[in-house]
Design a protein that fits this description.
single chain; alpha+beta; Lipovitellin-phosvitin complex, beta-sheet shell regions; Protein Transport Mog1p, Chain A; 2 domains; twelve-stranded antiparallel β-sheet; seven-stranded antiparallel β-sheet; 8 helices; 24 strands; 15% helix; elongated
């Protein structure tokens, strides 16, 4: 099958074949009673021979019935072993299409929920090669994305995203409930991660199989350890998700998938109804095709909107000998495994001014010229908020002192100020001077901590961080501010982008 023909890709390659189309009904066995004369009463001369004939006929029928049963038993479908073989070095080309329609749920004011029409169309094409499994990080594969694009329309606003050339090489790790995607060349941005992190990830498809012999019509249940990463969840509260071997045609096992899942993403509840099918090639021992229909209703979270949508995912995976982008020479010297907690994301403000790295618990809420707002959400709890600002440039060689910084902080907090907890001066990895002050106080009788940072260079450029959290959460917050500050650097504003073309047609014109 070629990816050039999209219509063929959207349909399962399996066709329905009748197993009985070349068979004929068995002829009547000689010696058995004919239905046209079976009701006639035999004469005295013929009664004994006919009676004997009937006995012989009954015996023949018994023998025939036994033979038919034996033949039917021998011809019955045998059990099929459903187990994928994922040998290191095995490669495939994958194409996936995701279509989503529904409503986006917003509650920016915290008082009233707004619903806006949402439409998404995404398409991925990538080569994938199995890497040797890791005792620490589980199943691994490396990918090269030829195409990764998405168009997202909310109301009449269209946003398009694509994967940068520098981030086309991606490693996928899967162990238990954890699924981690990262680039060994450059940290991904949140937008890039969201673009390639689809439900129904191809590295998980072998785990749908029971790894044993299965008869047609037999059903097996999937555990939360698979459901969680398969549907992009953080946790599963309750789930009934089953697969059933529907039929086998030629060398392809057709398997149905259905169920309901109640779970959470970043601590936000979500309800999912799922139906689907997938094909398993019995000869090549791999899942080659997947189609999922997903209905999901997700609540609004601290850092993300909610939604009520219907999604359709279609994926095909074709074996290839190798990929020129994933040879041993191309991967030599690259870090192909990583601690999931150390998989950082890259952020650069859209208006320019600065860039930094952060762990995946930080979510961008606002990106404006005057301030960028992050929220730190851990297992559904809002731990802290971070405001980052690029300050007005000062004359070159301007000195900034810790004493002046403390005085400015105390004046800004006013009646909320309680005491200073810590103050220090350092240099970050990019050579910027870093002034740090931690202050404590109260807001509406709630104990609060503020972590202030002021960063500057000899050219007079400067920026500031303010991390705000409840004092009771200080232990959970730990050092969550350090990575952002340590990797902060000034950056030139980006060049204006070309307006995207609308894949769903032109946006509506006011008044029409």
């Amino acid at each position: 099958m070629s990816f050039d023909d999209t219509d063929r890709f959207l349909v399962s390659p399996v066709t329905t074949i009748s197993p009985f189309r070349d068979q004929q009904r068995p002829a009547r066995i000689a010696g058995t009673p004919d239905s046209s004369t079976s009701g006639a009463e035999p004469s005295s001369q013929t009664r004994r021979p006919q009676f004997a004939c009937r006995l012989r006929g009954t015996a023949w029928m018994a023998i025939f019935t036994t033979l038919v049963l034996v033949e039917a038993s021998a011809a019955a479908d045998p059990p099929y072993r459903l187990e994928a073989i994922a040998k290191p070095g095995r490669s495939q080309r994958v194409k996936a299409i995701l279509e989503v329609r529904g409503q986006l749920k917003l509650n920016a004011s915290g008082q009233q929920v707004r619903e806006l029409p949402l439409e998404v169309k995404g398409e991925l094409t990538y080569d994938e090669t199995v890497l040797p499994p890791s005792p620490r990080y589980g199943t691994r594969a490396v990918r090269y994305y030829d195409q990764a694009s998405a168009a997202i329309r909310v109301d009449d606003h269209l946003q398009q995203s694509t994967l940068d050339d520098s981030a086309r090489l991606v490693v996928v790790q899967s162990k238990g409930e954890r699924l981690t995607l990262f680039s060994p060349l450059i940290p991904l941005t949140r937008e890039q991660l969201d673009l390639i992190h689809l439900q129904g990830n191809s590295i998980l498809l072998p785990r749908l199989l029971p790894n044993r012999e299965v008869e047609i019509g037999e059903t097996w249940q999937h555990a939360p350890e698979l459901i969680t990463p398969l549907l992009g969840l953080e946790a599963v509260n309750k789930a009934t998700l089953n697969s059933t071997l529907s039929r086998v045609e030629r060398h392809t096992a057709v398997i149905e998938l259905t169920g309901t899942v109640s779970g959470a993403v970043n601590g936000v509840s979500t309800e999912i109804d799922l139906t689907g099918k997938y094909n398993f090639d019995l000869q090549r021992q791999r899942v080659t095709w997947l189609a999922l229909g997903i209905k999901e209703n997700r609540s609004i979270g601290h850092a993300e909107p909610g939604f009520d949508v219907e999604a359709r995912l279609r994926l095909v995976a074709l074996p290839i000998e190798s990929s020129p982008h994933l040879t041993d020479e191309a991967l030599a010297g690259l870090p192909l495994e990583i601690d999931p907690d150390a998989a950082l994301l890259r952020f650069r403000t859209t208006t320019g001014g600065f860039q930094l790295l952060h762990d995946r618990r930080w979510q961008v809420m606002t990106d404006r010229p005057e301030v960028v707002i992050f929220r730190h959400v851990d297992r559904g709890d809002l731990i802290a908020q971070c405001n980052v600002s690029r300050m007005a440039d000062a004359p070159a060689e301007t000195e900034f002192t810790l004493d002046k910084f403390r005085a400015d902080i105390q004046a800004a907090l006013g009646d909320r100020f309680g005491q200073f907890i810590d103050a220090s001066e350092a240099t970050n990895q990019n050579g910027l001077q870093v002034l740090k002050v931690i202050a404590a106080g109260t807001v509406a009788d709630i104990p609060i901590q503020w972590h202030y940072y002021f960063l500057s260079d000899r050219k007079g450029r400067s920026g500031s961080f303010v991390f705000t959290l409840e004092s009771s959460l200080a232990e959970r917050f730990a050092n969550a501010d350090e990575i952002l500050v340590e990797t902060f650097e000034f950056a030139d504003p980006p060049k204006p982008a070309t307006p995207p073309q609308a894949p769903f047609g032109s946006p509506p014109v006011a008044g029409k």
